[in-house]
Design a protein that fits this description.
By secondary structure, the protein is mostly helical. It is built from 16 helices and four strands.
Length: 395
């Protein structure tokens, strides 16, 4: 892939780390465990390889400053301004994953494309906060309280400094030297025949993604591992992730049906009718609790999950038992009661609804409720972006 070209995949489905805040049934814990085994030490927000080299350079530039974290934020905010300038006439999804770029673009559109005097004031959630754990885990930063580079981090900082180029700068302008050093840090250097530990897991997942069709999405990858007898550790993990998504979507969709109803009996009646049918399992994607086919989708998803023997896969037993309550024992009222109980346990400080007999009583403003469910990507989308940044598939 030529430097500066568009990224191949445009996956925009939410990752577990983004869904945790709206995880109504506490399903993200199991998903995060699977994601950590597929793509260890990275997250859904560490999705641009060159941020690692840029932030190493930023740490080096601020090494003698009294408040380095503030100074690093100032440098990355300046990068966001340059990214906004660089892509001002391009689609919004061109060069994804730049922290603060959206705020920078909105500010400059409003002010005739004049940069702010203090760009770091445009946003608070910094790239360094997101990438710092990964930089430590990959051996680029020490684990000291004050940011301090390791020898590998200093080499990467020097490589970025030598390849900064002219303004406005962009993370797509990654140099070959940076790519090589990043491959080493990530365990993707093919000259190392047998990486160990987390590096070995990342390499195995990278090779599995490389075998997929170039137009595949994260959900496509999961659905291609729907079969019951996957070969290889990564394939087995992806199969478990697929089954967990069937459970997550089915249970989550049932909960959103409650959010859209006034009485539990209304939802139970819809589920009871669906149990008498044989609905087709929907593909993994966004599903609405307000849709006419919501009950059929709940039943189909949970039937498909139970059919694949999720307990034998080591998936959370309580969620599996909940699915059995509906599709095996055919007790929709008990199923919905348990759904509300699980929600209360997952949100002890602020459940969204409660049952008062048959009535469903909202405890938060209706406009704040999320009545759709979406599949997770298990960090595959973010990792895929990194792989293309370092041109791993062209190696």
């Amino acid at each position: 892939m030529a430097q500066g070209s568009d990224i191949r995949l445009r996956w925009v489905l939410p990752d577990p780390s983004r869904e945790r805040a709206v995880d109504a049934l506490g399903m993200s814990v199991q998903a995060d465990r699977l994601a950590e085994r597929l793509v260890p030490q990275l997250s859904g927000t560490t999705n641009r390889a060159r941020y690692l080299s840029f932030l190493c350079w930023a740490v080096k530039q601020t090494s003698t400053i009294k408040k380095p974290i503030t100074a690093i934020h100032r440098l990355e905010a300046q990068l966001a301004i340059e990214e906004a300038m660089r892509h001002r006439d391009r689609p919004a999804d061109d060069c994804l994953g730049i922290v603060g770029r959206g705020n920078a673009t909105r500010y400059m559109l409003k002010h005739g494309w004049r940069a702010p005097a203090h760009p770091e004031r445009l946003y608070k959630s910094t790239a360094f906060a997101a990438y710092r754990p990964a930089m430590r885990a990959l051996g680029l930063l020490t684990r000291t309280r004050r940011p301090e580079l390791t020898p590998a981090g200093r080499a990467l900082a020097a490589a970025y400094g030598a390849a900064r180029g002219k303004k406005p700068r962009c993370l797509q302008d990654i140099s070959r030297t940076e790519q090589g050093l990043l491959k080493q840090a990530l365990g993707l250097d093919l000259r190392v025949k047998a990486p160990v530990g987390a590096a070995a897991l990342r390499r195995a997942t990278a090779d599995r993604l490389g075998a997929m069709d170039q137009n595949a999405t994260a959900t496509d990858v999961l659905e291609r591992h729907a079969g019951s007898h996957p070969r290889g550790d990564v394939a087995q993990l992806l199969h478990r992730a697929y089954v967990w998504e069937l459970l997550s979507l089915g249970l989550g969709l049932a909960f959103t049906m409650l959010l859209c109803a006034e009485r539990r009996s209304t939802v139970a009646s819809k589920l009871r009718r669906a149990l008498g049918r044989h609905p087709r399992c929907p593909t993994l994607g966004s599903l609405s609790g307000e849709a006419p086919e919501a009950a059929e989708n709940v039943v189909a998803l949970l039937r498909a999950a139970v059919k694949r023997r999720p307990v034998d896969l080591g998936l959370e037993r309580s969620a599996v038992d909940l699915a059995h309550t509906l599709v095996t024992h055919k007790r929709p009222v008990e199923f919905l009661d348990k759904i509300v109980q699980r929600h209360a346990a997952a949100k002890p400080d602020g459940p969204w609804i409660m049952l008062a007999g048959d009535a469903i009583k909202p405890l938060v403003l209706a406009k704040t409720l999320v009545t759709t469910v979406r599949p997770r990507t298990y960090r595959l989308d973010a990792f895929e972006q990194i792989l293309w940044d370092v041109e791993y598939f062209d190696s």
